[in-house]
Amino acid sequence: MDDLQVPPCPGAPRGLRVPAAELLEQFSRSSGPGGQGVNTTDSRVQLSLDLSTTSALSDAQRERALGRLAVRLTGTVLTVSASEHRSQLENRNAARRRIVALLRDAVAPATARRATRPTKGSQRRRLEAKTRRSETKQHRRPPRPE
């Protein structure tokens, strides 16, 4: 297995290289169609990476990734599975692509929200819609006795 290359992205301008020794691949039988070899081939792939010990991430990237991927982690280990293909090799490539996408999103810095003001036109349209809705509800009421 080769090192995992993450192309340059906003949080990693030079990209990331995860050494193959830090990745753990496990294989198991995949569910679904497979013909005669369905019960004999281990085509499902689980690829795991421990984010707390990997040398690919800087301290800032590690902290950001652990925070963003917290719901997907088991302890500090990120695990992805791939079983959509019948071939183990294709599932290995799919799992690698998935973990690359997760790492790219996780190390990217959060974009700061720039506060904007509603335009005059949008304010006017909102108030007109409220007035129309109010009139509709007024017409539904029974007339007031005078």
Separate helix tally: 3
Order of helices and strands: EEEEHEEHH
Structural class: alpha+beta
Termini Cα gap = 88 Å
Q: Tell the overall outline.
A: elongated
Rg is 26 Å
> What are the low-pLDDT stretches, counting only 5+ consecutive residues below 50?
none
Sketch the major β-sheet: 4 strands, antiparallel
β-strand number: 6
Strand order of the largest sheet: 3-4-6-5
Strand content bin = 15-25%
| Proportion in helices | 25-40%
Query: What is the typical, i.e. mean, pLDDT?
Result: 90
Short structural description:
The chain is 35% helix and 18% strand. It has 146 residues and is an alpha+beta fold.
Label this structure with key terms:
18% strand, two-stranded antiparallel ribbon, 35% helix, alpha+beta, four-stranded antiparallel beta sheet, 146 residues
Question: What does this entry look like structurally?
Answer:
With 146 residues, the chain is of the alpha+beta class. It has three helices and six strands, in the order E-E-E-E-H-E-E-H-H. Helix 1 (59-68) crosses helix 2 (88-107). The longest helix has 21 residues, at 120-140. It is elongated and about 85 Å long.
How do the helices and strands line up, and which of them pair or pack?
Layout: E1 4-6, E2 16-18, E3 23-28, E4 44-50, H1 59-68, E5 73-74, E6 77-82, H2 88-107, H3 120-140
Antiparallel strand pairs: 1-2, 3-4, 4-6, 5-6
